[in-house]
Specification:
Elements: H1 2-11, H2 14-68, H3 75-83, H4 91-103, H5 107-110, E1 131-133, E2 137-146, H6 151-162, E3 165-168, E4 171-174, H7 188-194, E5 200-206, E6 211-216, E7 232-235, E8 238-241, E9 244-247, E10 252-256, H8 260-277
Parallel strand pairs: 6-9
Antiparallel strand pairs: 1-8, 2-5, 2-7, 3-4, 5-6, 7-10, 8-9
Length: 284
């Protein structure tokens, strides 16, 4: 009887064993499903990490390229630039595009300012006879004037060109409207600019926003009234004499670029500024 009772007690759990096995199978399925979800989560996170690492590496490459040009970009400008680029663009093309866009920007918002890359706070102090700024200092041209010609003569030259006339020695040459002498499209401003001999006076602005006058002491290629306003230049070991920058080829590198809106406004108002400064308002 004891043996039978023993077997009976072993067999007693049988009626409930099937539900328990079903519960265990259900728990196993839940655990397996949970493992898959966790695995997928891990895969998504890995992908995001890889993308972030790639973006960081790209930002470092672009920054290094611009820094090599002495144009360190601000984080906000760099973020905006990277968000506007197309995926899978070759790195050399991205570097060139970044440089082109930076040269077309306002450096007060796109280039980082440091103590050595901006004009000193007392740069306008006329009591300082002479000093050198090691740089490099990136700056943008906000105004340019030909101080080698009178304002009156510049206005007369522009008005003659607007009538379709220009001089060659003592001869007056009639131009085809809308064309320069060599047949290229142009206007009075551009033709007049090509005849600008200089020296030139410019207004330069650094990344901090400080504006300083500069004057050519030796002609600098690319500097003149025909240049784009907003054009970027790089100054190295430039002399400041009583608050004025003395510009010459050894210390000035013209990088190029243009701030479109500023250039258009300067160009449209140039003739009237010359007339006003020459005391010719209302004159013909």
């Amino acid at each position: 009887m004891q043996v039978i009772g023993f077997h009976f007690r072993l067999g007693a759990p049988e009626p409930s064993s099937a539900p328990q096995r079903g519960a265990r199978r259900g728990a196993a399925r839940v655990a397996s499903s949970s493992s898959v979800i966790k695995l997928q989560d891990c895969d998504i996170s890995a992908s995001q990490i890889a993308m972030a690492a790639s973006s960081t590496a790209l930002a470092q490459e672009i920054t290094a390229h611009l820094v090599s040009k002495s144009l360190p970009p601000t984080p906000s400008w760099l973020t905006t630039f990277l968000s506007s680029t197309r995926p899978n663009t070759p790195l050399p093309a991205l570097k060139q595009t970044a440089l082109f866009r930076l040269l077309a920007s306002d450096i007060t918002t796109s280039v980082q300012a440091s103590a050595s890359s901006v004009f000193p706070a007392d740069v306008h102090n006329a009591q300082v006879v002479e000093r050198r700024l090691p740089g490099p200092i990136p700056a943008q041209v906000l105004d340019v004037e030909d101080v080698g010609s009178s304002r009156w003569s510049q206005v007369e030259k522009m008005e003659a060109l607007e009538r379709g006339e220009m001089t060659k020695g003592r001869e007056v040459v009639r131009l085809v409207p809308g064309e320069t002498e060599d047949g290229a499209a142009g206007d009075a401003q551009e033709v007049g600019a090509s005849a600008s001999a200089g020296p030139h006076k410019v207004v330069l602005q650094d990344a901090r926003g400080a504006r300083v006058y500069g004057i050519e002491v030796i002609g600098v290629e690319g500097l003149g009234v025909g240049m784009n306003i907003g054009c970027k230049v790089l100054l190295r070991d430039v002399v400041v004499a009583r608050g004025v920058l003395l510009l010459e080829p050894r210390c000035v590198m013209v990088l190029g670029g243009k701030i479109e809106g500023v250039h258009r406004a300067w160009r449209e108002g140039r003739k009237e500024r010359l007339r006003r400064d020459a005391g010719m308002e209302g004159g013909g």
